[in-house]
Amino acid sequence: MKINEILTEAANPAQQAAIAISMKKANKKPKNKSTELEEEFDLIESIINRLAEHNGVDAEVIWEDLDTLTEDELYAFAVTSEPIMESQGVAEDWQKANKSDKTDGMSQKAVNAYRRENPGSKLKTAVTTKPSKLKKGGKASKRRKSYCSRSRGQMKMHSISCAKTPDKAICKARRRWNC
């Protein structure tokens, strides 16, 4: 028996999710003690705990924030936790790290933050070694050559001259890559 079968007084899934979350918050159990229903309540609690751990806050803070959400937002939360995570700035973590370190291009700190948000990512920092110090035909040399040729194409496509506008992001990045 699912939660939506028990909570028949709700008119739509958003209301059902809101009722389930409010019942869980109030530590109320449904009259019919179904194991599936208890699993759904435990799932809601585990989502809250994971969000709290991920954002470094107490779970009670998130429970209080749930009170301020509309029924549609509660439903979105019950289905996925993305809206709440985005509203707390989790999606912008690597961009914040990148801006704060004042590095042209992505620093190692920003790359690490990006990898935490996107597990399995193969993003790497710039090859900042001087071309004369790189081994010819080596991995780093090929990455550098590839980036330089791609960025040169972007500069041509957008008619960017680094001599005239050296503060453009692409010009700074090309200098970092020793292009």
Question: Topology, pairings included?
Answer:
Elements lengths: L2 H4 L6 H13 L9 H21 L3 H9 L3 H9 L2 H6 L5 H8 L7 H10 L21 H19 L11 H8 L3
Helix pairs in contact: 2-5, 3-4, 7-8
Tell me briefly what this model is:
The protein is mostly helical.
What does this structure look like?
It is built from 10 helices and no strands. With 179 residues, it is an all-alpha fold. The chain is elongated.
Uncertain segments: 1-10, 82-90
Shape descriptor reads: elongated
Compressed to H and E, one letter per element, the order equals: HHHHHHHHHH
What is the makeup of the main sheet?
none
Distance between the termini: 64 Å
Beta-strand residue percentage: under 5%
User: Radius of gyration, rounded?
Assistant: 25 Å
Q: Give the total of domains.
A: 3
- If you average the pLDDT, what whole number results? 76
Into which percent range does the helicity of residues fall? 55-70%
- Which structural class do the helices and strands define? mainly alpha
